[in-house]
Amino acid sequence: MHAATRRAIFRRLAAANPEPKTELEHSSPFELLVAVMLSAHTTDKSVNAATRKLFPLASTPASILALGEEGVKPYLKSVGLYNAKSKNLIGLCRMLVELHGGEVPADRESLEALPGVGRKTANVVLNIIFGETQIAVDTHIFRVANRTGLAPGKTPRAVEDALTANTPEEFKRNAHHWLILHGRYACTARAPACPKCIISDLCEYPGKTKAGPAKERRRSQTAFPGASKSRMFLRKPHKTSAE
Ligand code: SF4
Questions:
Q1: What is the pLDDT of residues 51-87, one digit of tens each?
Q2: Taking the model in full, what pTM does it have?
Q3: Looking at the domain assignment, is residue 243 inside a domain?
């Protein structure tokens, strides 16, 4: 993909959603770390359903540690792999209490040493909490980067490296949010909404979907109910002279 096209894609996404935010509910660095750790292989919605019950009761490493593994399980039942994640959550809290004074560490090595925390979770925390420009690659970003031609790669790490190398500096901080939301609400796995996609003319995916009959179009318009954020990724913006 030409560098000017890549820049134009990020300009569009930025214009549609100037201040993108994670959809994982949290009110502290620790809550974000827990929510991201829990979100592996499950939806943000199910994580939010769990943490809405857990965090009002226990929202610090010490208080969750006091609940114990069996104590947190009932709160995590909406989350996939909740048995393993309950164990990891208690191990994570123990390490934060014993090694980091109950605080979320600000370096990759310490984050990735925590149970259940891999590169993707560390990248999200470093980006959102500590203001770094890491681009965490999840299943949505992997798909969007490959389909569009923004950063083709066979593995999440290859895509991360390509995005890190090629994303214009001014867009790096929010690239993760823009791409994840675009993948979640427009460039979905089974039926990408190409006819309504705000970057369809810039996207290099050869298998773009076409507008169907009126009945089908009406159905697809109701496929993203309610969320104003989703509409931002489905509306064609006016072209700017910068493009
Ligand atoms: S045009 Fe289609 S394939 Fe390309 S980014 Fe948009 S929704 Fe995805």
A1: 999 999 999 999 999 999 999 999 998 898 889 999 9
A2: 0.84
A3: no
Q: Which domain holds residue 70?
A: 29-128
CATH of the domain at 75: 1.10.340.30
Last residue of a domain, one of 128, 158, 193: 128
Residue 24 falls within a domain, yes or no?
A: no
Domains in the chain, number: 2
- Choose the residue to mutate in 182, 200, 230, 233 for probing ligand 1, maximizing ligand atoms within 8 Å of C-beta: 200
Residue tagged active-site, from 21, 120, 201, 208: 120
Q: Quick check: is 239 in a domain?
A: no
Tally of CA atoms within 13 A in the half-sphere of 154 that contains its CB: 0
- Known active-site residue 21: no
pLDDT digits (tens, 9 = 90+) for 137-168: 999 999 999 999 999 999 999 999 999 999 99
Domain annotation covers residue 73:
yes
Q: Are residues 36 and 64 in the same domain?
A: yes
- Per the CB < 8 A criterion, the answer to whether 240 and 205 are in contact is no
Number of the ligand 1 atom closest to the C-alpha atom of 194: 2
In this structure, the answer to whether residues 12 and 35 fall within a common structural domain is no
Instruction: Give the pair of three-digit tokens for residue 243.
Output: 């493009």
Confidence of residue 226 (pLDDT cuts 50, 70, 90): very low
